[in-house]
Inverse folding.
């Protein structure tokens, strides 16, 4: 019997696989146990920005600065990076009162005070002005138009600043190809209606895809709006398979992002020899509500249509009843063609979860479309059986139970992929 592992609840959980399984691929990326020196990596990146002068050549002590930083759905070491940046701005002579820090929530929920304090520390909260972006605020400022003619509006504090710096992280994204870069502006600090229009228009477009930038209009429009929003500079972390920082890039928002993407590809790409009958994948490092289903996308890339996916999911909460009920209602209405039903909703610019946040609707759309193609077993210590089944998943209390469940209907000697961390892998098939 072969012993393997997955990252589950932020730990390596080891288990043995059945003797009759043919293990095709197990991306056991090496972990030397070392933790990157984030302070040094940030300082080095700031000293050698990509396609941009250094900040001390771009800024003066009279400038007002908007620092736009990703929310807690991403796991980058935000506090460490932010402190190095703030020290740099202090050396330039920019007063603390000239600096505003905006959490780029997009359409996600805002952070509570205790979450801000935990993430950034009381010292920074006492010294600097922090605020959550509100995508429905009445004072958002127009900056441009989408290809459909929809007006895009941006956070007023970001608009009014003399200089805008984005702090984000680079990892594969199901629609944008990769996270980071211009996403810190759009959808990070823009309005609900334009984000909705953009996502409904491009999510299921031919070029939109996990790890893909070529002819990806979703990604192209993100860059266009980031340019319209005058994103001057980014600092982006590159994460490895263990969700640890491998490197940091900074500079011009597009060129630094592209450089970071190439470094990310080199770290997290894994070649899969063929598609499997069964794929085991985890939600790691995602654990925030609708984010946990994102790893179903790379799993779908390496699994045969009609095959099985076992998703081991951490979930810190934020699965509201309306979200769960939307799954059940959609299944009851479109049981014969889930995928076609989803495409019809998006084509007609309709929300599946009426009144729900866009990230919940994207999670709904992607999951329902994949449930049409695969049999998905959910394993979770956080999500109860009744909830998982209401969402349309097969459900197992643990991995062993999931294995037995898959054996009842899967091929007798399945070919299997095991992916330890679903959120930071780029499959090459």
């Amino acid at each position: 019997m072969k012993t393997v592992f997955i990252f589950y609840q932020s730990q390596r959980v080891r288990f043995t696989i059945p003797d009759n399984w043919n293990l095709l691929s197990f991306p056991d990326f090496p972990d030397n146990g070392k933790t990157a020196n984030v302070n040094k990596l940030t300082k080095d990146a700031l000293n050698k920005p990509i396609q941009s002068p250094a900040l001390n050549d771009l800024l003066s002590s009279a400038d007002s600065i908007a620092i736009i930083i990703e929310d807690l759905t991403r796991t980058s070491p935000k506090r460490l990076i932010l402190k190095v940046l703030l020290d740099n701005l202090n050396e330039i002579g920019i007063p603390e009162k000239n600096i505003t820090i905006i959490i780029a929530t997009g359409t996600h929920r805002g952070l509570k005070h205790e979450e801000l304090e935990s993430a950034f520390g009381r010292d920074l909260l006492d010294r600097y002005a922090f605020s959550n972006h509100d995508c429905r605020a009445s004072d958002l400022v127009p900056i441009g138009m989408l290809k459909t003619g929809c007006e895009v509006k941006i956070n007023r504090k970001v608009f009014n600043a003399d200089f805008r710096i984005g702090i984000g992280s680079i990892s594969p994204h199901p629609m944008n190809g990769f996270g980071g870069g211009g996403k810190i502006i759009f959808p990070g600090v823009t309005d609900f209606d334009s984000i909705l229009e953009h996502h409904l228009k491009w999510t299921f477009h031919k070029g939109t895809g996990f790890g893909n930038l070529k002819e990806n209009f979703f990604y192209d429009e993100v860059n266009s709006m980031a340019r319209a929003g005058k994103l001057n500079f980014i600092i982006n972390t590159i994460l490895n398979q263990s969700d640890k920082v491998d490197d940091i890039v900074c500079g011009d928002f597009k060129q630094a992002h592209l450089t970071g993407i190439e470094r990310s590809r080199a770290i997290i790409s894994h070649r899969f020899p063929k598609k499997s009958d069964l794929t085991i994948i985890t939600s790691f490092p995602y654990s925030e509500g609708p984010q946990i289903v994102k790893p179903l996308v790379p799993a779908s890339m390496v699994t045969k249509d009609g095959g099985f996916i076992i998703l081991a999911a951490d979930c810190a909460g934020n699965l509201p009843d309306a979200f769960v009920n939307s799954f059940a209602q959609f299944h009851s209405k479109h049981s014969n063609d889930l995928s076609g039903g989803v495409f019809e909703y998006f084509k007609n610019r309709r929300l599946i979860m009426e009144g729900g946040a866009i990230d919940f609707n994207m999670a709904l759309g992607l999951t329902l479309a994949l449930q049409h193609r695969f049999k998905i077993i959910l394993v979770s210590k956080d999500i109860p059986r009744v909830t998982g089944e209401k969402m349309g998943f097969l459900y197992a209390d643990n991995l062993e139970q999931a294995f037995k469940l898959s054996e009842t209907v899967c091929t007798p000697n399945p070919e299997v992929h095991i992916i330890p961390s679903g959120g930071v892998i780029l499959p090459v098939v």
